[in-house]
Amino acid sequence: MKNITILGSTGSIGTNALEVIRNKSSEFNVAAMSAHYNHKLLIEQIEEFKPSYVSIGTQNGYEEIVKKYPDLEVYLGNEGLKKLGTLDEADIVLTAVSGAVGIEATIEAIKKEKRIALANKETMVAAGDLINNMLKKYKAEIIPVDSEHSAIYQSLLGGKKDEVNKIIITASGGTFRGKTLEELKDVRVEDALKHPNWSMGKKITIDSSTLCNKGLEVIEAHQLFNVPYDDIEVLVHPQSIIHSMVEFNDMSVIAQLGVPDMKVPIQYAFTYPDRVSNKVLESLDFKTLSSLTFDEVDNEVFKGVEYAYLAGRTGQSMPAVYNAANEIAVDQFINGNIKFLEIYKVIKNTMDNHELHPVNTLEAVIKADSWARKEAARIIKTYVK
């Protein structure tokens, strides 16, 4: 029986993880769970999974849960997330919160030498240097949950590190694949949220439509697998069947394929190095696949990948700035304050205005993140009409 902490239990990754646990109840137990604002769903999850610890991001949610469950240990806000990362009872910590708030909880879990099932891109993007230095000191391990990085992780098992030629990250192309700049000028939030293949939260779905999610994944792949940016390629693969690939120096390519369902990489992160049966999903039926196609990213229209390479190659605090500026811009797009294409403008202007500094401490990461959020907000008020 493995005890699991789920940070972000009410989001798309968290609810998928709970379904994995539900279907493997003899193998997994929920030790703790957290939510940001959806305390109603969190209460339903508490009723079913009966965790010993809970954290909630809002004061009214905190008060309601404390009143309803007087014997439950309940925490509030970011401090609560950090506390859940330190629990002795947990074998695995799934970081499925969206945004930079997951960084501190991941750091605490590393100090406790946990297995971290990482579904929070921002941890390695904004704080990759710090996290990698900590992993050298503590006996923690990170198993990626993103479908692309899980695929790379699995494919890399087919060879040695010094045999890798390049990593190929696949992208669905998002909601607006094939669209022109003119066609994207006035797209609405509800249009951007109609992803053709995956069911995800609002923020990551918008990131998919801008291809900033692929940009974040490029930086994360560099940090997770210590592969140079020149050896990381992004290809648009609309069918989302091949989740990513690794080309080795003998020119063989190993890919991980499967139905587009996040329960597969979540379960793999929970059970690695073992694979256990999955009776919930259907097998991939190759007879029904008419074609698997690939294309280059249109960097003239979808600038999220190009800006990420620029941030990654610049290094130091720039990836944290890219991530934070994108978070602010996406939030403002969702709230109707800027247009879709202005997301790119906010990111690039914020990066252009940034003065680099190392990010080898948590304080330095927070400094870069905080500066970028304020600068992005200033740019939105001043320049974006």
TrEMBL record:
Binding residue positions for 1-deoxy-D-xylulose 5-phosphate: K121, S147, E148, S172, H195, S208, N213, K214, E217
EC class name: oxidoreductase
Catalytic function, reaction form: 2-C-methyl-D-erythritol 4-phosphate + NADP(+) = 1-deoxy-D-xylulose 5-phosphate + NADPH + H(+)
Annotated DXP reductoisomerase C-terminal domain residues: 257-374
Domain of life: Bacteria
Function: Catalyzes the NADPH-dependent rearrangement and reduction of 1-deoxy-D-xylulose-5-phosphate (DXP) to 2-C-methyl-D-erythritol 4-phosphate (MEP).
Protein's UniProt name: 1-deoxy-D-xylulose 5-phosphate reductoisomerase
Gene assigned in the entry: dxr
